[in-house]
């Protein structure tokens, strides 16, 4: 891309004066102090008209996000950038309020002075030529969390912008401090090397498309889509029939993991993953992208929705990526975008180990305590105390985490369904192991596609059933609540274990009936606080302020305590979501909410207790399960032959005529 002239509109000091002064090392110069982050400048030129170009008013959560965005734009244009920091007019120690990112050829390197008798210093050649291309961002903390806003942008270069092979040559010449043309290879050699890579890339792309066509011929429900540019594969995505079926039930919460590259094609790999009813990762689809840009991620999300009959997930979890964030906002406007907490936590050792030293583990425990807090006010106050306690006021990672807390902190995500994927570190290991099965077969693209198909089949069928049976035999009932046996018979072992924890905890809570259908529920050792539970008898609806059910599909201990106190023998049907059941169909309407009229209720409780014991004992072996199934089937047939009871009142029984 050749250098182009620009028409510069400025609100503030002249661009050349500001950039040149900043290049000479001013960190809080007098002229800089006169400029406000809210003042804007704009370079009007066709080179910046692309959708990927920065624009005035564009916002980023952190200055690192802005740098990554500008770096990607620079790579496309044919130049590289470097950071340059200036302090805001609040003075040193008040935090950065402005930042410049400039072309790597900005500024001029002065000759090194030497005095009489001193050894002359070598003046190496410099690539700097006073280029004025830059991006300026200003910090805006006026409304809530701090943000960085683009307040100035110029794409005017006074040097040639180079294609990839020439860029590589110039960089290596500067690194080796040699004259142009002095390297032991030429631009032609670099060009040939790049061309050989592209030929291999084309061969692999042809193999991939051929395999997709074969899969489509063998299974019409297999889905794939792709785009090409200049006869080169730019994007491709695919999904299997079984994955699309799984998404119908388990696509409410989706992880889009984009932290991998397929070496065979040198393309970014994005994998859509969910969690099935057995608590295991399930594959929904994957995409290969030539560039990690807003356009590429938007294409991937569009195609994925097409595969899934335009059914968007309730929540999508990703890594911190400014391009992906913008693509999700554009393509999934009604989906909650959250950041994967285990991807964030995986970086803690590199971020904080050296900073905190021996206090690192204590800090990590405090972080997880804050993460699991029930409300946002306590989280924010606790975060402030944590920063003070560990002296992390100036740490940029801490600042970034707090600025983006609404996307990862559990108190801010309550009420948004996540299928429990926000748990730490429960699912991180299993999901990482799941993804690594794909990544272990990267030598050839055909091996990769075959391995994905094998993993999908294994995970969705035989392995799931085996784990389910093993967990079923380990079920141990711990309460005398009839709802326990009922839930065990309906839910998968994974889901039942979550509900069981809540049932056990519910026994340690007390409820206080307030006005109408409202209850206050709190731990028996507490004298204040608690959760608010409301109950609608006519519609059998119960809700709790902790919002555990809305987030995970599992009733909380507070709601379970209220249902128990109201003599519910079974959990209402709509609080046993289809996605957590052993079979993906609803059982007959539950016998719940029966008033305690004495004898009838006692007989039902006794029967429920026997059924619970039957399930518990039968689950201990296959032989016991076979006997129980056979005998219960016979008993059920006998019961169905008896007259139907339409009313039970004390000991009086009315038969259906």
Describe it.
The chain is of the alpha+beta class and 657 residues long. The strands form 4 sheets. Strands 1, 2, 3, 4, 5, 6 and 7 form a 7-stranded mixed beta sheet that branches. It is globular, with a radius of gyration of 32 Å. It starts with 6 loop residues before the first strand and ends with a strand. Keywords: Metal-binding, Nucleus, Zinc, Zinc-finger.
- Estimate what percentage of residues fall within beta strands: 15-25%
Residue runs with pLDDT of under 50 for 5 or more positions:
1-50, 586-598, 645-657
Main sheet characteristics: 7 strands, mixed
C-alpha-based Rg, rounded? 32 Å
Report the total helices. 23
> What is the helix fraction of residues, given as a range?
40-55%
Looking at the overall shape, the CATH architecture of one domain is 2-Layer Sandwich
| Multimeric status of the protein | single chain
The CATH class of one domain turns out to be: Alpha Beta
Q: What is the third-level CATH name, the topology of one domain?
A: Nucleotidyltransferase, domain 5
Shape: globular
Structural class: alpha+beta
Alpha-carbon distance between the two ends: 90 Å
InterPro entries: FAR1_DNA_bnd_dom, FHY3/FAR1, HTH_FAR1-11-like, MULE_transposase_dom, Znf_PMZ, Znf_SWIM
Keywords: Metal-binding, Nucleus, Zinc, Zinc-finger
Protein name: Protein FAR1-RELATED SEQUENCE
Subcellular location: Nucleus
